């Protein structure tokens, strides 16, 4: 029995919550995963997992064994990287999750830069507007916008995303273009709400270095970023979004910016990963590349000065 391999199987079962999911994640036959756990438990002389037809949970011994496995595997990966070609050319599977708009519009178009530099890294990229559970879903690194972050994760700030307030040309023709917050009376907004928490978001403006939240009447509320902008283009009211997400619509005239004098607060974009993956060479080079990407001139992470 390869004990380190068995440890990897065990930790992935814990993280994903099932034998089948772990097998799929590791690209192993499901029977092989079961055999490795039985062999590991026999070697240790303890039961690590409590299995039922519907649920898998850690025993007391398993709960004590899991964090030690995580540390050992992280140390092993880092040690091998120091004394092998992987130090300069890391390899293996890297699971990343990010908001769909950031992935579709910013990261994936630039991804050939990364894969050319690190051709041995295989990427699994999830595009979600919902926050994922990194441990349970077996994700190595996530990108998240906003300031509400998980203190249990390692956070690497990437960039502050400029945001803009927009409306459709049809809406502006019907309601006029507000030039100040005092002129918002009689206007309406498209409301965004979280699909996971149900929290609803009003419009935010920077006034004298303070964030002022304004709620307007609405006819439509949505829980996805693309649906939010689609409702705006359909004329249902004002929205606020990162510049990158509306840059094309603004350029093509499908949306127009309003209230330029009182912009929304910038949105922080952060890379997050579990502490036990802090030493992973794959995670490190990917996050370093994201920092480079965010700082490159000519991308849409920042609003172009000429568009002001």
How would you describe the overall organization of this protein?
The protein is of the alpha+beta class. The protein has three domains: 3-82, Winged helix-like DNA-binding domain superfamily/Winged helix DNA-binding domain (Arc Repressor Mutant, subunit A, Orthogonal Bundle), CATH 1.10.10; 88-157 and 267-303, Periplasmic binding protein-like II (D-Maltodextrin-Binding Protein, domain 2); 163-258, Periplasmic binding protein-like II (D-Maltodextrin-Binding Protein, domain 2, 3-Layer(aba) Sandwich). The protein is 40% helix and 22% strand. The protein has ten helices and 15 strands. It has a five-stranded mixed sheet, covered by helices on one side.
Q: Main traits of this protein?
A:
308 residues, alpha+beta, Arc Repressor Mutant, subunit A, D-Maltodextrin-Binding Protein, domain 2, 3 domains, five-stranded mixed sheet, three-stranded antiparallel sheet, 10 helices, 15 strands
Tell me briefly what this model is.
The protein has helices spanning 3-16, 19-26, 30-44, 60-82, 100-117, 134-137, 169-175, 225-233, 243-252, 281-295, and strands at 49-51, 56-58, 92-98, 121-127, 141-145, 154-161, 163-167, 191-193, 200-201, 203-207, 210-214, 221-222, 239-242, 256-258, 267-273.
How is the secondary structure organized here?
Layout: H1 3-16, H2 19-26, H3 30-44, E1 49-51, E2 56-58, H4 60-82, E3 92-98, H5 100-117, E4 121-127, H6 134-137, E5 141-145, E6 154-161, E7 163-167, H7 169-175, E8 191-193, E9 200-201, E10 203-207, E11 210-214, E12 221-222, H8 225-233, E13 239-242, H9 243-252, E14 256-258, E15 267-273, H10 281-295
Parallel strand pairs: 3-4, 3-5, 8-12
Antiparallel strand pairs: 1-2, 5-15, 6-15, 7-13, 7-14, 8-9, 10-11
Helix pairs in contact: 1-2, 1-3, 1-4, 2-3
